[in-house]
Design a protein that fits this description.
Layout lengths: L24 H14 L1 H23 L13 H28 L1 H8 L3 H35 L2 H4 L2 H28 L2 H22 L6 H9 L2 H8 L13 H25 L3
């Protein structure tokens, strides 16, 4: 017969020799940053953004003269490329999360980091920082070229022009964040990209069609006034001949902030409630 089991006979609990700090947002941020910079979609989309903004912008700078900037800001050439470059930003925002759903990696992510809100927050922060840096850097290259070639640096430089350009960069970044939120809700790359492209391209077409009918003309004019291309043009401080019924650039920004905030809130709710 054996005697009673004592505390000394009990197996010792395993203790890892490695430090096990409590997970926090910084860990999730580092993980999401590693994912973002290690996939090819980031290189292709941000590379397309830089190529479009810088390429089209420098071409516009080379085809203009100093006299062309009497009525338009020197930041205007950057706008031409940014009107097209916003598409890669939105696509990258969508792929930041839908690519994980497509490959099934999202299961591993949520298993390793059960705090889904923390993971989603890290995705938003990492993407917003990378997108804004890429957009602002590309725009700055074009703006510097415009100032150097067509403006006196000491006399023509205007803080207001820089503020308008940075506001445009922020607007494009918010479109990308909106794409990420839509991707989190739909969990499908093609569907989310189609929604974002429709959000940018359909309002000008729809507004023009609605303006053809007298009863729908007020709605058509409103749609034509509140859309991404018009908002970017206004944010860059481009002149408009008829400003009587045109909304201000900051109301355009406020509208996008409200829409993006609602989509981001919806993404948090759906990601927390779903199984995956």
């Amino acid at each position: 017969m054996t005697g009673p089991t004592t505390a000394a006979d009990q197996p010792k609990a395993y203790s890892s020799p490695l430090p096990t700090p409590r997970p926090h947002l910084g860990h999730a941020f580092a993980s999401e940053w590693t994912k973002l910079v290690s996939v090819r979609s980031t290189v292709w989309t941000l590379g397309a953004l830089v190529l479009l903004v810088v390429g089209i912008g420098l071409l516009a700078v080379g085809e203009t003269s100093a006299a062309d900037y009497r009525d338009v800001p020197l930041t205007a050439p950057a706008l031409f490329g940014l009107l097209v470059g916003l598409v890669p930003v939105m696509v990258l925002g969508v792929l930041t999360i839908t690519s994980e759903y497509g490959t099934g990696l999202i299961r591993t992510t949520f298993t390793a980091a059960p705090g889904r809100s923390r993971v989603l927050t890290a995705k938003y922060l990492v993407f917003a920082a990378a997108a804004f840096a890429a957009v602002a850097g590309s725009v700055s290259v074009v703006v510097f070229a415009s100032f150097i070639l067509h403006g006196d640096w000491a006399e023509r430089q205007s803080a207001a022009q820089w503020a308008h350009a940075l506001a445009g960069c922020l607007y494009v970044t918010l479109l990308g964040v909106l794409g990420l939120a839509v991707g989190a809700m739909l969990r499908h790359s093609a569907g989310a990209i189609a929604v974002m492209l429709g959000l940018v391209t359909l309002p000008p077409v729809t507004g023009g069609m609605l303006s053809m009918w007298e009863t729908m003309a007020p709605v058509g004019r409103t749609v034509l006034q509140y859309n991404a291309p018009v908002a970017l043009i206004q944010l860059f401080g481009m002149p408009n001949g008829d400003t009587s019924n045109v909304p201000s650039s900051w109301s355009q920004m406020l509208l996008l902030v409200l829409v993006t905030s609602a989509a981001v809130a919806g993404s948090y709710v759906l990601v927390e409630r779903r199984d995956v």
